[in-house]
Amino acid sequence: MTDFRERAVLGALSLLSVTTGAVDALSFLVLGHVFTALATGNLLFLAFALGGTSDIPSAVPSTVSLTAFVLGVVCGSALIRLLRRRRPFWLPHTLAAEAVLLAVAAVVALGWPGDGSVSSGQRYAVIGLVALAMGLRNIGVVRAPITGMTTLLIQIPLVTLIGTLLVPGTTASGGREIRFVRPVATVAGMFLGGLAGTLMVPWGPSPALFVLSGVVALIAASGLLLSPGDAETVAGRSV
User: How far apart are CA 239 and CA 231, in angstroms?
Assistant: First the structure.
């Protein structure tokens, strides 16, 4: 790839990190004490609820989210196996499926009451659809794979970044982009996404999810993550 196209691909992946932060901000602040992208958080919330803490009054939201997330991973794996038979690189197609699920979640969230008196059925349906989309995204990115750009978690990029800055030679091999630029882009993208999601809270979940669905759809349709050569370059392998 040319330098311009490499930067464009990095920008697209960074934007996916932004959408992850925004999704979880909306999930926690609007859907109520639940994550839809961060499965670790849901596992802990489930443990807290089962432990009897009054701060997490119900284990149902976390259970719904975790179950849907796992189902998204399973469905994503099946979709990837199917696409691999016909297409050399399938990430745009999994992103398109994610965008559709987010749009469906936005439709289900129409009429969400501003006073928080949403019905349990509507709430759990939105949680489940968004978590399903994030599970699909997760398996797509993991199977790509995209070195240094998880778009969903910051632990590994953060450790890579700190190790590169403070103890050179202790982190993953690769050029400056893999060891510094991509981790910075992932961490910054997640932070900015969380900020953006917080600012979208007054909109309600439906408009915000429509926007996020549109962003993911544009990335999928852009062609930036389309060719097999791009896949190998993004993954940090030589072509």
Answer: 10
Grouping H, G, I as helix, E, B as strand and the rest as coil, residue 64 is helix
Altogether, the residues listed in the chain come to a count of 239
Q: How far apart are CA 19 and CA 31, in angstroms?
A: 16
Enter the pTM of the model: 0.83
Is 239 part of a structural domain of the chain? no
236 occurs within a structural domain: no
Is residue 238, in this structure, part of any structural domain at all?
no
pLDDT at 128 over 60: yes
φ, ψ (nearest 5 deg) of residue 208: -65, -40
- The CATH number of the domain holding residue 200 is 1.20.1250
Q: Is residue 237 part of a domain?
A: no
Give CA–CA dist 127/134, Å, rounded: 11
Tens digits of residue pLDDT in 99-115: 999 999 999 999 888 77
Tens digits of per-residue pLDDT, 186-236?
888 889 999 999 999 999 999 999 999 999 999 988 876 654 444 444 444
Predicted confidence at residue 233, as pLDDT, reads: 47
Burial of 81 (0-12, 13-18, 19+ CB in 10 A): exposed
Tell me how far apart the alpha carbons of residues 24 and 117 are, in angstroms, rounded to a whole number: 20
DSSP letter for 52, please: T
Counting the structural domains of the chain, the total is 1
Q: Give the domain extent around 33.
A: 3-230
CB 35 within 8 A of CB 24: yes
